[in-house]
């Protein structure tokens, strides 16, 4: 009792609140540093995330730092531990992102554990669902105090630091949630909004300094994409020539393959080029490109979304669009562009026929304009660099939309720490949870009752409604009937108490959790809700029994 009163007094002391705020400010600044470090190798770690680690002594001094330099190199945490040496014992390690584990390699976690780090502050959990939470659990199991921003510790300053962590790995987070690579549209335009003169001449609008920044952007991307017009007009090289970073693949999107025979992009001696085209387009020209070593990929429907889905499957993480206005408009309209970077030069070229960076989007009123998010302004030499996101960096926990929502569904579940039970095919371990499992149910129908061979049969006819709340209600009633009819299923459901249930459907983003956790998982949520209802019933009946005794 005395202890509780004392701790209350201490917490309400203004001195302690100031101390807590200072503590948060220290944590936030080290997390920001970890995020900055992680960004130093952007583009080189792909398809892995950018990892940075700072080890700080209890007195708040940096003892060691590290960042993942490239794919397959020593983890940031191991480098920081090496640098900090004996100062690791009892120190705090700051990680911009929870470590993953590549093919069962736990080096990052082991390094922190073996070095005797006492506390770890994590900016964000790993965005890939199969890795999310694993390293955090592992560190906690070794007695390390782990604080995840936004979960265990919250404040404005920490929220800002967390945002830096999201931004630094935005490509991976976007890719995980949208199943297309992260796409950045870059253009350079004059003050009067032209990307070339009426003649098509564009060399150069932006300054040398700005163009070097573009080389850096290229160096951070897996590929640079342009359309046929840009190849015909500019004959670009699209290489990163700032002296470091890797060189991205060049991609050309061309419907007709009406392209020149001589072009810088057909020289693949140092970097490869892939031409994406319409199936059957100019076969003889395709042969010519192949003879030059250029890969040609044919699409049944050549459009930005199909092309991006294809490159997502090939493992591309981030793509830089350096195309003209027509392709840029089509890419924006199809929702594949996540971020825009515009270099604005203090020049006026005029010309009613001079092209602009984004073509027709079909908008007629200013209210329809797309508003960028997290806009940044920076002066680069004489030019102004304006950048911002067209789509917000997605929620990292879409399967469980929010902590509050999850508690509402099932208070026994801790949304951040629970294990996840996946089910999908009816023959899987928990396959009987599926709405397709062959468990007939008897439900009211009109003035009578009828039997349906599965929950799905009942759901499909005749109640199926486009309105989500009706759909959800119908599914819930059918599931309730199934689990009440079959006691062994109810027992099985109750045995999962405390775990998050996720229907692992890669296709159904409403009922299922999606391929990488991007789905809404309504089937899983309903099952957790039902489980919670049953758990409530059994605790009430247990209470009644004990009262009766
Ligand atoms: N940053 C920038 N400033 C300008 O003034 C430009 N005209 C462009 N154009 C883009 O860069 C491509 C040429 O690239 P290489 O130098 O040949 O590698 C050109 O095709 C446009 O996409 N960019």
TrEMBL record:
The yes or no answer to whether the keyword Transmembrane helix is present is no
Output the Pfam families linked to this UniProt entry.
Answer: NADAR (PF08719), RibD_C (PF01872)
**Annotated pathway, please?**
Cofactor biosynthesis; riboflavin biosynthesis; 5-amino-6-(D-ribitylamino)uracil from GTP: step 3/4
Q: Does the keyword Transit peptide apply?
A: no
For this UniProt record, the keywords arranged alphabetically read as follows: Multifunctional enzyme, NADP, Oxidoreductase
Record-listed E.C. numbers: 1.1.1.193
Q: Which InterPro entries match?
A: CMP_dCMP_dom (IPR002125), Cytidine_deaminase-like (IPR016193), DHFR-like_dom_sf (IPR024072), Eubact_RibD (IPR004794), NADAR (IPR012816), RibD_C (IPR011549), RibDG_C (IPR002734), Riboflavin_Biosynth_HTPR (IPR050765)
In this protein, which residues make up the domain named CMP/dCMP-type deaminase?
Answer: 25-147
**Highest taxon of the lineage:** Eukaryota
Fetch the NCBIfam families from UniProt: eubact_ribD, ribD_Cterm
Query: Per its record, how is this protein called by name?
Result: 5-amino-6-(5-phosphoribosylamino)uracil reductase
